[in-house]
């Protein structure tokens, strides 16, 4: 059996990343090999992520501490929870700098055609956090799946007496929160409406 070439293996693994095709993976791999110390730094970072990053037991954000820095911050408003699809969306809202409540990361959206149902998301855990909440802000992405997920959660939560709002449509339809600029995210949160 022929041994695997390390450069080919690196290209293969890089091309498995989202948005990285074979040409970009090849370009990145060659850059990593040519740049002194970069391969070792990347290896150390990847090992650190594998060994030191997990999910916050309260909000399910990716973090090196449990609870995360947001959940453990006493200055945050504990009566409001902003529900997002992924940790990247949480980080985008935090960068906007105008939201001071808590978060809840669903770890995805409802996607029946892909076999993702309510039990595959952190919806049950969200329902468990409702006591003492004044408002839930649904900040799922403005996509069909994001809208369906928001509607599903709203239908579960509203009968329980918690105000449910949806971020305003300042965020472009079909885009992702992770790539939305800070002022658009701030306006979307400020102009949220009840569902």
Overall CATH class of the largest domain: Alpha Beta
Q: Give the CATH topology of the largest domain.
A: Dna Topoisomerase Vi A Subunit, Chain: A, domain 2
Q: For this entry, what is the oligomeric state of its chains?
A: single chain
- Tell me the radius of gyration: 20 Å
Mean pLDDT: 92
DSSP strand count = 7
Helix content: 25-40%
Strand order of the largest sheet: 4-3-5-6-7
Q: What can be said about the biggest beta sheet?
A: 5 strands, mixed
Distance between the termini: 60 Å
Tally of separate helices: 7
Task: State the domain count.
Answer: 2
What is the N-to-C succession of helices and strands?
HHHEEEHEHEHEHE
Q: Strand content of the residues, in percent? A: 5-15%
User: Would you identify the CATH architecture of the largest domain?
Assistant: 3-Layer(aba) Sandwich
| Low-confidence segments | none
Structural class: alpha/beta
Q: What labels would you give this structure?
A:
195 residues; Dna Topoisomerase Vi A Subunit, Chain: A, domain 2; elongated; alpha/beta; Helicase, Ruva Protein, domain 3; 2 domains
Task: Set down the secondary structure blueprint.
Layout: H1 6-14, H2 22-34, H3 38-52, E1 54-55, E2 62-63, E3 77-84, H4 87-96, E4 101-105, H5 123-127, E5 135-138, H6 144-157, E6 163-166, H7 182-190, E7 193-194
Helix pairs in contact: 1-2, 4-7
Give a quick summary of the entry.
The chain has 195 residues and is an alpha/beta fold. It has helices spanning 6-14, 22-34, 38-52, 87-96, 123-127, 144-157, 182-190, and strands at 54-55, 62-63, 77-84, 101-105, 135-138, 163-166, 193-194. Helix 4 (87-96) packs across helix 7.
